[in-house]
Amino acid sequence: MYKREEEKLTEYKNSYDDIKVPLDLLDEAILTGFQKAKAEKGKKPRNRKMLFSFMAAAILFFGFFTSIKLSPAFAAYVADIPGMEKVIELFRGDKGRMLAIENEYYQEIGVSQEKNGLKITIDGAIADENGLVLFYSIESAEKQKEVILEEVGLLDQNGQKLNWSSASMETHHASEEGETSYNGSLEYFFDSLPVQKDFEIKIKVKSDQQTEDYKLSFSLEKEIMTKKTYKINKSVMIEGQKITFVEADIYPLRVAVHVKMDPANSKKLLNFDDIMLVDENGEVWNKINNGVSASRISENEAILYLQSNYFNNPERLYLEINKIQAVDKSEAFVVVDTDKEQLLKKPSGNQLYDFKVEEDYLMFKLQTEEEFNAFPFGGITDGNGEEITPKQTEMLDHEGEVELRVNIPNLKEFTSPISLEVSFFPTWITGNEKVRIK
């Protein structure tokens, strides 16, 4: 009865089983994944746009696939839920969410609306105290080469917009051949999930032939599982930089690790590239691999997000920290003279170069010996300290040469020099530290 689902799950499991997870090989495997992605990108230049949220930035990170217990009960559970095969495909890189499905924490919704042959369905959801992930599908009577979710609004039961702290969405689907169906996810994270279980979502969908507005109402029926909190309060030193891990909150969707950097550190720690959860058997849960991976609380305090082991109960659980993006605090801003087109200040080294101004664009070139996928700049201010909100940021890879573009409407109206805060940069400090959580 469940032969097709068993075959698909077996295929996934075989791919996971082929991956070796000794800790001394993790860096090599991750680098291999990056190189493969780089090779694929070289076939056709593409734009990579940063996703900004209230206190978070989403970055792309490649992780390991999880394993699935192929029990008859689990196969039956998957087979009974329409569209579950596509949901599993979306989750292949996130062990925590696969475990949520395995433990029947996924909520089937199945609410649809169709207009002129284009139907959108909210297939299901996973929710916890902190976040809500919705899975949607789009079906068309005719093949569509491009489908875009132009506007997405999550509302409460009274039709009021919900105030989320960060969000990550799949909104652009494209196919040269054209497809009749597409799938994606919408992620919302809150300071605390709204108490009500009834929601409404408004979506404007643009396809090859038409643009339609959809409004779907749905409810969450399953009980929301509460977080597990572990106090840590332990510090490590990596290349002279002191880092204190305060506590870890483990939710079904992700693990949130509260970390503080010593104000006396000489470097600004930008991004924890290589950090993972490891249990006593060496099983690994990596960082969030495609979505919000960190929230900055202040200059020296942040929340790091990792894949969740909520549905596991290890005897011992550790944080392993190996590689962190960092720049000297005195070099934490890039400063440019837009009148003379001069690069006045930048981090040491030859990674960032060839600054120029073209109309309303600040343009740089970036090079690095290691794969680097994050847009470097955060907050922007002009010479009078006035904050600047860019219209668009782009990272263009032209056969290995990376071009950075910052689009500032009416650029000439802002006083030079302009300062760009360094939020990510291809320089690192490395170590091999291990902190016990449980």
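[next item in queue]
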Amino acid sequence: MKSDEIDHGKRRLLTATATALGGVGAVSVAVPFVASMQPSARAQAAGAPIEIDISALRPGELVVHKWRGKPVWVLHRTEEMLASLKTAEEGLTDPQSAGSEQPDYALNRQRSLKPEYLVLVGVCTHLGCSPKFRPEPGDEEIGADWAGGFLCPCHGGRYDLAGRVFKGTPPPKNMAVPPYMYLSDSRLVIGLEEGEV
């Protein structure tokens, strides 16, 4: 072969090799760059929906879970607890929850999808303390007219068993109802609503 002849096969091989190596190099640079734009695992966990098994939750019991760094309560209300919601309305600041944070499906007396289950962000709307579950009617410490509910230990905020604030206490509005949905009769997801799955 003469030195001035061009070997086209060798040229194609070298061009293909250089192109492949350049592509691999571009991908190896792009992957970490694109990955850096994704939220961290910690950030995803902080805002990610959580799934809760409520099959073992007996009537009258409350469980606490953490979602977005805040306590979320799931209360399995008894028939007596549900009956107390109507009798409490006269003493409430916003019985219809018109000025409170909640999904549309919680715009009812129970503030829930299913009357027997209450799902609330367990944070007082006054200064952000976490109220205590005080379900016993006529609690001596609170008063004979107490029908059961939630009492904030910081400044005395009082809420009924639907998280609605009583008149004459510091909180400006009812406790928040987070977005949630049922996967089945025994499982619910907090952080998602029907149709977002």
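[queue empty]
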